[in-house]
Design brief:
- The complex is a heterodimer.
- By secondary structure, chain A is α/β, with parallel strands linked by helices.
- Chain A folds into two domains: 248 residues, Rossmann fold (3-Layer(aba) Sandwich); 163 residues, 3-Layer(aba) Sandwich (Rossmann fold).
- In chain A, 40% of the residues lie in helices and 18% in strands.
- In chain A, the strands form three sheets. Chain A has a seven-stranded mixed beta sheet, sandwiched between helices.
- About 2% of the residues of chain A have low confidence.
- Chain B is built from eleven helices and ten strands.
- In chain B, strands 4-1-5-6-8-7-9-10 form an eight-stranded mixed beta sheet, with helices on both faces.
- In chain B, strand 7, helix 7 and strand 8 form a beta-alpha-beta unit.
- The longest helix of chain B has 28 residues.
- In chain B, 51% of the residues are buried.
- Classes of the chains: A alpha/beta, B alpha/beta.
- Chains A and B meet through strand 3, helix 3, helix 5 and strand 9 of A and helix 2, strand 2, strand 4, helix 3 and helix 5 of B.
Chain lengths: 428, 302
């Protein structure tokens, strides 16, 4: 029997982890992740969760420690955020290269300098190429569900790839909502056993000693990396199948790699990720009431990147109306270029356009929510209006090709806080 | 348990066919220790010489379960293995780390400290060849004063360097067992490995392991240097067992430093006054050591 409780995003993650019964949990505090490991420590102390709870000396050690545990065939968990995630950076690539099926939660938070503890997505996006599957939850419920599904996906013999589940710092990690908590029996039936089977690749064996985490020369290295890439691509199928199976058992969460909201007949579409999707939905509703064909696509996974699903959602199915302008709303900037998610989306659009010899359509990158800056429904509505303008410009004046250097349309929200007098000061 | 000795040392090999240099002291440490501990070992070595020479796909040199750790994370990876050993109640296994001096005294110190603090049931063995050898002989915090490296070409540094005292750093964590050893005294080393294997908790061994390639000495002088360093008093053989400190070998009088230094090109730059100060440093180290023995004898539970 499932139960319903009033939980924060972090608490929902802790509940999800408890149900997955990891053998080893490595804990190191960092705001706004800390309440995850606090709740888990309580569960371990009370005996609710039978796990080794290890107080590590750093995030780098947390992930290294769990690789040791995973090499022993044990299910593991840790959580981090921001500076902590970047301090782990070496171990992220290490774990994915070692193909250990780790599951980690990240509270998306801004990166220093300047110091800032509030939410944005700079941390995980800086590590999008680290070989981890990256998921972005919108709600506490989705976070709990993603954690449970993550173990099934990561431990699939064809995937064997670690997974990072991202929750927007504070906005999601510390916001409370009613969350349905599945029963232990249901989760036990859904997941494989908590110990990987003897002989699972990447694990030790006392009867047949193994050397793990090896060195490889240029030729073999390429083969290992190709196989890693292939497994990550393959994971898209496993993620979809796992979500379908999850929905059959638990009655929710049938979304694939992308969640579509009013996008089927939309002319202007904002692509986004994480908890801001709730606000975007409200903006869509408001614009629809005005008769404007607005829609949203929420990227639930950034790795593997759902190129096909994105093109399909925008152009694939027979549509009454053509998508005329696309926005990418993200809490991140890749300095000197544009937002990281915008780059991802545009790459997918180009793939589609080049295959179909079709023209590109205007794409505006909205960079907002940096360092916890709030994004209101009105802000998002203004973004949609900007997309409409871009569409008009395209029709009236042959909108310039967006790939032209220097003409990339990146708009920073919140620049009204810009202080003229600070221009000449070195803020950092 | 049978006392291990050179005569009873098993013929089984658990670290063989690696690509180590001729005369490598570090590989001897691994080979001998694994003979004592046996096949039921989970070994961690960080990025460094041992991982570079022992894990070149597809030719693996370990006959026991072994993995490479990120350079800074030997202690953490050992802890992760130990946690699962604990969770499953696995018995008669050893969780063993072999890291060099750079991987221990510098980049790996935080992770080692964490593992010792948590009282993980691990054996951590530092093979000390007194510099970063895998990258081509750069100075570490375990490089002795006056030794030339590729990042201290004159052998001099601009600060009053004292080789980090890893034994006392480990012992300061209040762990059950810590000791120094030298490849020049294999019987003493083997006994200490055996003792470490009996400890319920962390144990730490700091083992002198010459590197002919980095030190500029003939490859067949590894064992001889491992003996002369002890006779000169530059490398005391010491044991910390549950708070009790024992000096395992007390030279009646110290051999002249030249008997150790002159065989190595890395010490060519030393002037008489440098050797004078090395002797002073050695003598004060021994005075501190005797004081530590007295202190431990009066305070240890006997």
């Amino acid at each position: 029997m499932s139960t319903t409780d009033f939980l924060s995003g972090n608490e929902a993650v802790a509940q999800g982890v408890r149900l997955c019964r990891p053998r080893v949990i490595a804990a190191y505090p960092i705001t706004p992740q800390t309440t995850v490991v606090e709740r888990l420590s309580e569960m371990v102390e009370s005996g609710e969760l039978d796990a080794q709870f290890v107080h590590v000396e750093s995030e780098h050690s947390a992930l290294a420690l769990l690789m040791g545990s995973a090499a022993m065939g044990a299910r593991t968990f840790t959580a981090t955020s921001s500076q902590g995630l970047l301090y782990m950076a070496e171990c992220l690539h290490y774990a994915s290269g070692g193909r250990w099926p780790l599951v980690m939660m990240n509270a998306n938070r801004a990166l220093a300098l300047p110091w800032n503890i509030y939410g944005d997505q700079s941390d995980s996006l800086a590590l999008v190429s680290s070989g981890w599957i990256q998921a972005y939850a919108e709600s506490a419920q989705e976070a709990l569900d993603m954690i449970i599904q993550a173990y099934a996906v990561a431990e699939d013999p064809n995937v064997r790839t670690p997974i990072l589940i991202n929750l927007d710092g504070f906005v999601l990690t510390h916001t409370y909502e009613a969350v349905s908590i599945p029963s232990q029996a249901a989760v036990d039936a859904f997941l494989p056993p908590r110990d990987l089977p003897l002989g699972f690749p990447g694990t030790f064996n006392l009867n047949q000693p193994q050397s793990l985490g090896v060195t490889a020369g240029p030729g073999d290295y390429t083969v290992f990396k190709y196989l890693q890439h292939a497994a990550m691509l393959e994971a898209e199928t496993t993620i979809a199948a796992t979500a379908t199976r999850f929905a059959q058992i638990f009655g929710r969460g049938s979304h694939g790699m992308i969640e579509s909201y009013q996008a089927e007949d939309a002319e202007i579409v904002i692509t986004t990720l994480g908890s801001i999707a709730g606000t975007v939905r409200m903006a869509v509703d408001a614009l629809r009431a005005e008769g404007i064909r607005a829609g949203m696509l929420r990227l639930r996974y950034l790795r593997p990147f759902p190129c096909g699903a994105l093109a399909d959602a925008l152009f694939g199915k027979p549509r009454l109306h053509t998508v005329r302008a696309i926005g990418v709303l993200e809490k991140d900037i890749s300095f000197g270029h544009q937002g990281s998610v915008s780059l991802e989306v545009k790459a997918a659009l180009y793939e589609h356009a080049s295959r179909h010899r079709s023209l590109t359509i205007p794409v505006i990158n909205f960079v907002a929510g940096l360092g916890g800056q709030s994004i209101s429904t009105e802000d998002v509505i203004a973004m949609y209006r900007a997309l409409e303008e871009a569409n008009q410009a395209g029709q009236d004046h042959d909108f310039p090709h967006l790939a032209t250097p220097g003409l990339t349309d990146v708009r920073f929200a919140g620049m009204e806080n810009f202080r003229e007098q600070d221009q000449h000061q070195d803020l950092a | 348990m049978n006392k291990i000795s050179i005569k009873t040392l098993p013929e089984d090999e658990y670290f063989l066919g690696h690509k180590g240099c001729g005369g490598c002291g570090g590989t001897l440490v691994l080979r001998w220790a694994l003979k004592v501990l046996g096949v039921r070992c989970f070994v961690v070595v960080p990025a460094g010489c041992m991982s570079a020479i022992g894990f070149i796909y597809p030719q693996m040199a370990f006959g026991v379960n072994a993995m490479i750790a990120p350079f800074a994370a030997t202690g953490a990876m050992l802890s992760g293995i130990a946690a699962v050993v604990r969770a499953r109640g696995l018995e008669n296994v050893h969780v063993v780390g072999f890291a060099g001096d750079g991987g221990t005294a510098d980049i790996g110190l935080q992770s080692l400290s964490g593992a010792l603090d948590r009282r993980e049931k691990i054996i951590y063995i530092c093979y000390d060849n007194e510099a970063y050898m895998n990258t081509g002989v750069q100075r570490s915090a375990a490089t002795p004063v006056g030794a030339r490296t590729t990042t201290s070409p004159s052998g001099q540094v601009t600060f009053p360097a004292v080789k980090k005292d890893l034994l006392r750093i480990a012992a300061a964590h209040g762990i059950p067992y810590a000791a120094t050893a030298s490849v020049g005294h294999p019987a003493d080393f083997l006994r200490k490995v055996e003792r470490a294997g009996q400890i319920d908790g962390p144990s730490f061994l700091h083992v002198f392991a010459p590197c002919p390639t980095g030190w500029g000495c003939p490859a067949d002088r590894t064992i001889a240097l491992g003996k002369s360093v002890v006779e000169t008093g530059l490398w005391p053989l010491v044991e910390w067992d549950h708070g009790r400190v024992t000096i395992n070998r007390q030279p009646r009088s110290f051999a002249p430093l030249s008997s150790y230094l002159d065989e190595q090109t890395r010490f060519r730059g030393l002037k008489p006054k440098d050797i004078e100060s090395l002797m002073k440093e050695r003598d004060s180290k021994w005075a501190a050591l005797h004081a530590w023995v007295r202190e431990s004898t009066s305070s240890a539970e006997v």
